[in-house]
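Homework help board

Subject: predicted structure for assignment chain

Our instructor gave us this sequence and asked us to write out the predicted structure in token form, then describe one feature. I got the tokens but I'm not sure how to describe them. Can anyone check?
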Amino acid sequence: MAAFSFRRLSNGQLFTVDQIKSYAEIKHHLACMNNVTSDSIDIVRGPFIVETKEEMTSQSEMALIIHPKERPICALSGSTAPDMFEGYMADGARVKMACGHAVTPDNLYRFCLTSLKDSNATFRCKICLTTWTFEEITNKAALSDDERIFFKQRIDQIARITTLGIKPIDKGATNDLLRNCGKVTMGYSNIPNVPSIRACPKCFQFIEHLKGCKTMTCSCGNVFCFSCLKVGVGNSLACGSYGTGCPVAPVQQIG
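My token output:
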């Protein structure tokens, strides 16, 4: 049976695990090989953190992120102010951001991770909406080397999606992004291994699938299936309802 392959982002070390193992067993095996606990690692496929075995693939390497054992706070950046996300009930020491508001390093990491998952690469204070720099996030969330690389890769990808979505098509860059994006499972229809980024069949604008069903409505008004890429009729899919299965169209190639 083929094995899953995982390459650590920071040092390129390669690990393999038999597919027969469960998701929990795979994480435990990887953790043991790196002398850490299972909750200290994450598996990444494309731009997304994998949360089930069904989201894994043996067709290509997946990335491995190892989180720091703790997120220390520099004495000069400490704060006694309440955590902006959990108020006075925040657990742990807090850092003072450049805007003056406070947050625990763990909450800062989780907040930025959620933003990137939602294709938002601009990190803003929850209270005053001041934009935080990536350098500040790196230092005050005490990112590990793996986390820093993952964040930077995701930020760069979001920037490429945004740029290529509003400028004349750069065929080389477009095809590279379409070819190297991750895979997702469609909601309701449970269609697996669908490329997470598609180009609208009508206007070729990039669209990233974050959650929900396979029905996609582009800003140009075109309705299409994110899985098979068939263009809809009116507001209805040509391949059935949002909950029915259909073939997964190959990775698109522009030009």
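Reply (TA_rk): Your tokens look well-formed. For the description, you could write something like this. The first strand starts at residue 3 and ends at 8. That's the kind of observation they're looking for.
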